[in-house]
Amino acid sequence: MNTGPARGMRDFLPEDVRRRQYVIGVIADVYQKYAFEPLETPAVENLETLQGKYGEEGDRLIFKILKRGEGAETGQADLALRYDVTVPLARVVAEYRAKLPKFFKRYQIQPVWRADRPQKGRFREFYQCDVDAIGSTSMTVEAEILSAAADVFVRLGFQDFQIVVNHRKLLNAVLERAGVPKELYGPVLVVMDKADKIGVDGVRKELAEKGLADKVATTLLEQLSGAPPANLSEWMGQQSNALNDDGKQAIEDLRQIFSLCQSTSAGAHLALDRSLARGLSYYTGPIFEIRVADLAGSLGGGGRYDDLIGMFSGESIPATGISLGLERILVVMGERNMFPESVVSTPADVMVVQWFANRTNLYLSFAKELRDGGLRVELYPEAPVEDGKKVSDRQFKYASARGIPFVAVIGGDELANGTVAIKNMKTGEQASVPRAEVVKWLNS
Amino acid sequence: MNTGPARGMRDFLPEDVRRRQYVIGVIADVYQKYAFEPLETPAVENLETLQGKYGEEGDRLIFKILKRGEGAETGQADLALRYDVTVPLARVVAEYRAKLPKFFKRYQIQPVWRADRPQKGRFREFYQCDVDAIGSTSMTVEAEILSAAADVFVRLGFQDFQIVVNHRKLLNAVLERAGVPKELYGPVLVVMDKADKIGVDGVRKELAEKGLADKVATTLLEQLSGAPPANLSEWMGQQSNALNDDGKQAIEDLRQIFSLCQSTSAGAHLALDRSLARGLSYYTGPIFEIRVADLAGSLGGGGRYDDLIGMFSGESIPATGISLGLERILVVMGERNMFPESVVSTPADVMVVQWFANRTNLYLSFAKELRDGGLRVELYPEAPVEDGKKVSDRQFKYASARGIPFVAVIGGDELANGTVAIKNMKTGEQASVPRAEVVKWLNS
What we know:
Two copies of one chain form a homodimer.
Chain A: H1 14-33, E1 37-38, E2 44-46, H2 47-50, H3 55-60, E3 64-66, E4 77-81, H4 86-95, E5 104-113, E6 125-134, H5 139-156, E7 161-167, H6 168-178, H7 185-192, H8 195-209, H9 214-224, H10 232-241, H11 245-261, E8 270-272, E9 286-292, E10 300-304, E11 319-324, H12 326-335, H13 341-344, E12 350-352, H14 360-372, E13 377-379, H15 391-401, E14 406-409, H16 412-417, E15 419-424, E16 430-434, H17 438-443
């Protein structure tokens, strides 16, 4: 009998869960500070809610659920597993419009399922961590979303991250000015977006393959790649003069984002990346990505998308969002040893030894004192056969194997003196502490 | 287009999520204090892992997932949605035996899916919240699990709960002594278990229907129903003398549980219920249930089940567990208004108003100060068209509609004086507070 998880799925053992909960906890706490609110939607959606929303390729990757009862024998599906948290958000906005605030700022951290071919780092069940602000066209929203993202990465211990921004309307205006045919906008942006991976020559080659004239490609490369402008404000002024109305609007939006972010945590990390395009087609305004120096790809990204949230109601509803790459963040933090030892590696702060054969009540009371003092306490579940007999061996070994940093013993002497012997399992040092002061001692 | 959730599924809007997270947070925190560790398994399991584990009725209620790719056209299923968290636990114990500690104490709080007919209070997606201690036969484990459960209910604000216990081996011994035929043990216990709902006459009637002789039924009713014995210790001694070896062992277990719990939070809530049987067939030792006075049914229950966890490896692995009825707890707490207002009802502690048309940077900086001070801060996203123009109307209304308790304004006077005007949205009172003291003021 196969006892592994299903293909492409993962079991999270306790240390995995603690790592995940730690990161999720930081993200949730930070976004709550910005008054974003949690939303949860069911894992199972009506198939018709999801189908046709993710393109042909996406449709194929949806896990479909067999009809039950009378429909079972037909082999047909009527339900499906959540594929992302954006379509459910659009559904929720359409369904509960009257109950939701005018500016609906929500975060949603839930697993999604995709029937992708599993490979290294790609799973069939993974978490999405999306933050979206719905209902306002103000760039203040962009500034707040980016500021919160910066807070998240700082609190997780990243120091070297960059928040790069660009604007879809600026890209389009530059493409227009350079003479790129409209039907090539999409493919050309996808190629330009790879500049940091395939280099200028690679971009040139791929643009030619897409059918872009060499001269147009040269102009584009001048405009979109290379180092950011030295004087951003001056560059913005020049650009604005030479662009169409959409381009002017884009420059104004970017100008505001840079200005507003100066008063937030994002300011110190912000940079313009003229080639940033982001893969998804639905962005309509500012776009952004969070990068760390030594990692290809990003730790998160997003942008403004004013036409997606209204898909079920047919309206245009302004929205800006960022998706933090939770699985990716976990991998990078693991590789860099960024998890605080105390939080994720140990199941308890201290283990209480059972020294006497028949005094479990004593140890239960003592464990209660420590727990009431806020400590996480393991009580070794089994009393020894004789007082103290081989206790040190078996019980101490157990604590050590589990990575519990301290072990507390009340034996004969301690009972007589009202003390507790506490052993530091790393250094081997032992201390005798009055029972009433153990909580304080362990907390210090 | 239907924009509701699928049948029997629920969307959790922000206040719902906050309520759920509050209860889950308390449960997780308490069990962590007892050194229980979190486990998470995938929502999707191989169909063969689940099938045949829940009986015929259970098998029918499993949501099955259609094969993808080449198998798609056959209409067959190879995967299924998690139906409970017990079978996955057994699978995990078999798969990772070498990596898990000798005493594996885990909690698992995850949704499960059942294709039940939806009805009031019964959903197709709901959370299970299971706590199990694997690997020890010591009654200390029972005492710790019950003590933690008591801590959970106390922290949630329940005062009137009872933890009732009984023992499967005691029940069996009493049935044997009363002359119940072995094949009727199961059905008879199910009937006895309903004593509090259908009364003594109802029990008598149903026992007769099951084919139990009237005399035997009378003996049983004497033995199993009615008030708990006045002198528990004395009663245990009498029982023990008149029972078979299994019965004697059961009495000894119960004696230990009552004794050990006196040193824990469970002691004050513990009672024997001689008719408690618990529905599931797999219990082999002590069983327990958590009840509140005015609620039919229980808020949680469990027991010792020494033969289930080894189902995949064919071993007998000792285990004791409790399942807390999360959905039920939420309903009762909602009805009784037990959720702390500040935690669940408001998305922010304070809203920062944008008074000036062109000073969003000022408000972003101020919001940052408050957030750095630990507050949850909503910044109204849109600046007014003119300074102060209609600000009070629109922005104050918005804060009020969202239930945000305080609104902070920096207008002309405040800017000149280095103060902030803070309005209490409930009382209407207004205070002028130096900007540097706003965090302290709001936290007090």
